[in-house]
Design a protein that fits this description.
This protein is α/β, with parallel strands linked by helices. Helices cover 31% and strands 21% of the residues. Helix 1 crosses helix 5 (255-261). This is Small ribosomal subunit biogenesis GTPase RsgA.
Length: 348
């Protein structure tokens, strides 16, 4: 009988999965060149990943998997991917129409923004859309608050409806107690290099688990001290995934995420006189009225429109890719049918 106690710190108590008899579950801790570190009921182990192109390729940190142990050989082999939830996806950095999964089975997303520099509200909106789309709860964390002359909490809260916004200092410990109180389940840290993600992760873990580094003095940008996505159990329950800094944050099928990120704009648009209002010069436009009164800023409306266009573009590319894949699949079916008919004819 499998003892799941060793998996509880890695989030097994919240999964609700049913494991077939004889199978062994595990959670992917880190992936690396065709193999992964995985937490199992027997402890941490090394397992081989399926080959690229297989039905279960593209595994990532946070995935729950089934492992093959019948051979008795090491390393183990991942044989199945259990259903995902809380998936953080962005458009592929290569520009392809397929998305890139950054982390899986996530409950809380910490969007890390350094408060000691210019706070990019547009970047926060992008990350919020990714977080909301996953179904996880976003928390915007203004890091390095001790080094900031003025922490823009009000400005950030204005672009993050429904999300918690906190200012913390991993160095002094200010705000960490409040942040810890809002964490739930598996937590992933997202943000650019130099945002202090690894420093914050170490503070939450209570140990120097991840390497940290200073930002460059020349341009204030961070170095990639974290090169893997890696999961660690949190001391007070739950698990934490640290990630490398994100340069590009392209949206991938994030319609619901955008609706939640820009719920204020969506609510205004629903009050327009015309259902197809373009918010330009139409009479009875509630959005333009909000701009005039200062309730809504031009920057936020422009960001909303930009992200809607980007998301629609990626959705169209994805639809074309799926259509092409279906066409190729049908061609293969027809080829197999023709081969079968030829074989039958030759046997007569």
């Amino acid at each position: 009988m499998v003892d799941y106690d060793l998996l509880i710190p890695y989030g097994w108590n919240t999964t609700g999965y049913t494991v077939p008899d004889g199978a062994v579950p595990g959670r992917v801790i880190r992936t690396d060149r065709g193999e992964c570190d995985v937490a199992t009921p027997a402890g941490l182990a090394r397992a081989t990943l399926p080959r690229a192109g297989s039905e279960i390729s593209g595994l990532c940190t946070g995935d729950w998997v089934l492992l093959e142990t019948s051979t008795g050989l090491l390393p183990l082999a991942v044989t199945a991917l259990l259903p995902r939830r809380g998936v953080i996806s962005r458009s592929s950095a290569s520009g392809r129409s397929a998305g890139q999964v950054l982390a899986a089975n996530v409950d809380t997303v910490l969007i890390c923004v350094p408060a000691d520099g210019d706070v990019d509200l547009g970047r926060i909106e992008r990350l919020l859309a990714l977080a909301w789309e996953s179904g996880a709860q976003p928390v915007v964390v203004l890091t390095k608050a001790d080094a900031a002359e003025d922490v823009p909490l009000d400005s950030v809260r204005a672009v993050a409806p429904g999300a918690t916004v906190l200012a913390v200092s991993a160095t002094s410990g200010a705000g960490l107690e409040v942040l810890t109180a809002v964490l739930d389940g598996t937590v992933v840290l997202l943000g650019p290099s130099g945002a202090g993600k690894s420093t914050l992760a170490n503070a939450l873990l209570g140990a120097e688990a991840f390497a940290t580094g200073a930002v460059r003095a020349s341009d204030g940008k961070g170095r990639h001290t974290t090169v893997y996505r890696e999961l660690r159990p949190l001391p007070h329950g739950g698990a934490l995934i640290d990630t490398p800094g994100l340069r590009g944050i392209g949206l991938f099928d994030a319609t619901e995420g955008l609706e939640k990120t820009f719920s204020d704009v969506e609510n205004l648009a629903s009050a327009c006189r015309f259902g197809d209002c373009g918010h330009e010069s139409e009479p009875g436009c509630a959005v333009r009225a909000a701009l005039g009164s200062g309730e809504l800023t031009e920057r936020r409306l422009a960001s909303y429109r930009k992200l809607l266009r980007e998301n629609a573009h990626m959705a169209a590319r994805t639809d074309k890719r799926l259509a092409a894949e279906r066409k190729r699949a049908w061609k293969e079916v027809h080829k197999q049918q023709r081969r079968m008919y030829r074989q039958r004819g030759s046997e007569k």
